[in-house]
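JOB MANIFEST
job_type = single_chain_structure
chain_count = 1
residues = 613
[input]
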Amino acid sequence: MAARIEDYALIGDCRSAALVSRDGSIDWLCWPRFDSEACFASLLGTPENGRWLVAPREPAHITRRYRADTLILETHFETRDGAAVLVDFMPMHGAQSEIVRIVHGIRGRLAMHTELILRFGYGAVVPWVTRVENGALRAIAGPDMAVLRTPVHVKGRDLTTVGDFIISRGETIPLVLTYARSHEPLPGPIDPTASLEATEKFWKQWSAKCRPAGEWSDAVRRSVITLKALTYEPTGGIVAAPTTSLPECVGGKRNWDYRYCWLRDATLTLLGAMHAGYYEEAESWREWLLRAVAGSPHQLQIMYGIRGERRLAEWIADWLPGYEKSSPVRIGNAAHTQLQIDVFGEIMDTYHQARRGGLTTNESGWDAQLAFLKHLEEIWHEPDHGIWEMRSGRQHFTYSKVMAWVAFDRSIKSAETFGLEGPIDHWCKLRDEICDDVCAHGYSKKLGTFVQAYDSQQLDASLLLLPCVGFLPVSDPRIARTVAAIERNLLRDGFVMRYSTETVEDALPPGEGAFLACSFWLVDVYILQERFDEAERLFRRLLALANDVGLLSEEYDPFSKRLVGNFPQAFSHLALINSAYNLTRIRKPVHQRARDEHAPPAALREPLETPVK
């Protein structure tokens, strides 16, 4: 059985990523890209579906950490007879994608074991393994090839490559697995030690640019490193997570493929990157967005592949039983065909914030936005599937309408601030019309709050964003009552649920964890309400949910006290970064959206910091 989700750590090379369990087993890896078919899939099945174990033969005391400010994982094994450190990483900018595992002897003599089970095609395809030059092992299946190089004597046993070795104090033993296409020449060897030094240098130099966030600086730095690791470097696209089908409720059916790029994350990504000091990454994301959405506005999707691919057809890998029997295992995501009107607001807000942040402008970007606005004018009044991608049919979701308001609001402000051409008076009328519509139909007089969908009586955590995007001031009594109602009805053990799956019909069985980004949104609302002590207390509780190496998943199950959902989750770490800067910066990300505070680009780039009180 796979480890608990919080027992995994991430390594990656900004093209793909692997999950390494506490006991030294790599249980998930899609090669050579985030969205490629997995060659280690025991995370969603059994060891027979593929894994790579390097660990002591006997039970050991285990601790682990990342090397400071890097994505290099160190797992420390200690027994009565000896101790060793397993160093795991994926080299950056290599000709091929590789996993390097180096065992360093620390004390005594430690008996170690390695077990390599390669299974291409999401754990289904057994490769043909042969020994090639200099004792390397080559595994081939269809288009895929992997080559193992190590001084450890390994042999085949029951369709598995195994080896035993002794590591002594001061000794170093490497194991290197390299991916290549099967029709290509055998990839050449690398120097593991030199590769480790180069990888550490890259991560330390990159993370050194991160702006401080007071006492939260370490958590912010770990989060920006995680987001960098989830970035497909050739295009700048950021995947929501490197995994598919890790359940939102263990044993349930809320299992989705998150190895794609969601437009909904766009504004938080941009603001978080700029506030952290990563303007090149912010611009790469903005340019990825422009390329991905290029084309006819009526064909806009809510997510795309890492290169901007549009066809993300969903199917079931029925040979995999799922994480802790949580089936089905889904590959692809059918939600890419849904209408979700809020993404229009995200696009317009992202480009408005980019202009305000001093990122270079692109003339065709404004032309494309004008076309999107024209299309939005025709469809904003239609029902859609909403921010949570409901599969129970379309409704008039309140948050979707609010983000349509945001789209026109930001277009007006961009035109007025930056001298861009557009029908400002017409947009103002549309903005007012949408506002009136939301306040008339998205607000329940019976409850005295805004509600999930028009004329419903259900609450929704997305309503926390209404003051954060500037739709209404946080001082508005309707907002205050909505926040209070969410606190009364959607908190579980102090963390925010998206909505009540027991009372909302979403075409799935009830039951899921608290969505971590929603709890960070509550932190931001507390800051807007100047409830600083409550904001800090909740933020500390959220940080405490991260695992021992600082990673967060999509959700947290307050009943079983464990992380659930795809892991690590970009949205959770994005929300963490923005909330941390909201707590510490003079110029806060949430104020930029809520109040449209304007500052010259040079001021936005200043690392201004202050206590929250």
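[summary]
The first strand starts at residue 8 and ends at 12.
The chain is about 30% helix and 20% strand.
exit_status = 0
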